[in-house]
Hints:
This protein starts with a strand and ends with a helix. It has helices at 45-53, 65-68, 72-84, 103-138, 150-161, 166-173, 177-185; strands at residues 5-10, 31-35, 59-62, 88-91, 96-98. The protein has 7 helices and 5 strands; from the N terminus they run E-E-H-E-H-H-E-E-H-H-H-H. The protein is elongated and about 70 Å long. Belongs to the site-specific recombinase resolvase family.
Amino acid sequence: MRLHRIRYCRLASPKPDASVPSPASPDAFDAVFYDAPADTATHRAGFEKLLRYLQCGDTVIVDSMASLSANTEQLCNFIRRLIEKQVTLKFVDENLTFRDDGREVAGPIVAAMELLAEFERAALREKQAAGIATARNRGSYRGRKKKLSDNQVVSLIERARAGESKSRLARDFDISRQTLYRYLKST
């Protein structure tokens, strides 16, 4: 079985070959997968293709951790997925290598990174709560805008009491069923 050297990157320009090395270069890769910078965590077609392409023992080379992910939690998830595929993952800028055979080393590093991600989320929630409290004290915080007007809520409740289907009501008022039940419960 031939082991592959694979590059994954997020391109700055829309043209895929703008950042891909030529096959003649000494840094030639067997395959290159890429995503556009606008691709989100939920839509990473290039990364998903990479996962399908990988075989046990392959090496994935990424320029930097920042090009693999925008946040620590997502980065840890990607690293774990690649290690589970039993591949070697190299970050060039950070000079870091994660291997499946080195789980006793990689595991604690990723676990520490996950703890940092939890800390980041907690700090962000605290900061957000403090900002909301400050805005409330100033009187400028109104919360989320109501989805339905008062007249629509009255109509919704009347139709629900008349026995109309909850699914139909949710579609008619363009709200989720959860929101529908919240309005019905408030009466």
